[in-house]
C-alpha cells in the first residue's frame, strides 16, 4: 500500500487505510493535543481496536514499545513500536455532542464522535452507538479515591507514537475539538498522520 502523510486540521477528523505490516505514525504537531484513534479490520469491521480488552490482556493501562493492542476479539491489531510521550488514555469514550451539552452546556459542539463517524463513513462503516478509541496523548489521572481527572497532555511539539498494523485496517483519527478543559491544554491544534 502507498505511503501517506496528512495534516489533520485542528478539530477535524481523517480516515485512511493501513495494510498489515505498515507503520502508522501519529505526531502531536504543536504539543498538548489529544488524538482519538480507532481502527477496524478491513475485511470484517465487526472487529475493532478495544481498549478494554487491551487492558484485560495486558493487565495494565499504560503501554510501552513492544506492547500489543488488542481487538474486541482478543487478536493483536496494533503493536507499539516507538513512543515519545508514554502517556495515553484507554478509559474514556470519545467526546460527543451530548457530552458537551451535559458538561459544558454547549449545543452542537464539534466532537470526536462525529469526526470519527464521518471519517469511517467514507469507507462504508456505519456510525457505532459509541466510539471507544485509544486516546493518543490524553493524560487521564486516576486518584487513589477512584477520582478521574483529565490533565494537560505531557506531549510536546513533535512528539509521536508509531504503531504497526497487525492486520489490514481501516483507521480514523480525530484531533479532539475540546478547548473547554485541560484535555488539549485549552487550545485545539492539528495532528499529523503518516503511514509507511
Ligand atoms: Zn474529543
UniProtKB/TrEMBL annotation:
InterPro entries: DUF1989
Pfam families xrefs: DUF1989
Domain of life the protein comes from: Bacteria
Positions of the DUF1989 domain: 7-170
Descriptive protein name: DUF1989 domain-containing protein
Source organism per UniProt: Paenibacillus herberti
Organism placement in taxonomy: Bacteria, Bacillati, Bacillota, Bacilli, Bacillales
Amino acid at each position: 500500500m502507498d505511503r501517506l502523510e496528512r495534516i489533520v486540521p485542528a478539530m477535524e477528523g481523517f480516515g485512511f487505510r493501513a495494510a498489515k505490516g505498515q507503520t502508522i505514525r501519529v505526531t502531536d504537531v504543536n504539543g498538548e493535543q489529544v488524538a482519538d484513534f480507532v481502527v477496524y479490520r478491513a475485511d470484517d469491521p465487526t472487529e475493532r481496536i478495544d481498549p478494554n480488552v487491551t487492558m484485560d490482556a495486558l493487565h495494565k493501562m499504560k503501554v510501552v514499545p513492544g506492547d500489543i493492542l488488542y481487538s474486541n476479539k482478543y487478536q493483536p491489531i496494533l503493536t507499539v513500536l516507538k513512543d515519545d510521550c508514554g502517556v495515553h488514555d484507554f478509559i474514556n469514550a470519545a467526546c460527543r455532542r451530548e457530552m458537551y451539552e451535559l458538561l459544558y452546556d454547549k449545543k452542537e459542539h464539534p466532537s470526536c464522535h462525529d469526526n470519527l463517524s464521518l471519517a469511517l463513513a467514507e469507507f462504508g462503516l456505519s456510525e457505532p452507538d459509541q466510539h471507544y478509541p485509544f486516546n493518543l496523548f490524553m493524560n487521564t489521572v486516576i486518584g487513589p479515591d477512584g477520582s478521574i481527572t483529565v490533565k494537560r497532555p505531557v506531549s510536546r511539539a513533535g512528539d509521536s507514537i508509531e504503531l504497526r498494523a497487525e492486520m489490514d485496517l481501516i483507521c480514523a483519527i480525530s484531533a479532539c475539538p475540546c478547548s473547554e478543559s485541560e484535555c488539549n491544554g485549552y487550545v485545539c491544534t492539528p495532528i499529523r498522520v503518516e503511514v509507511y
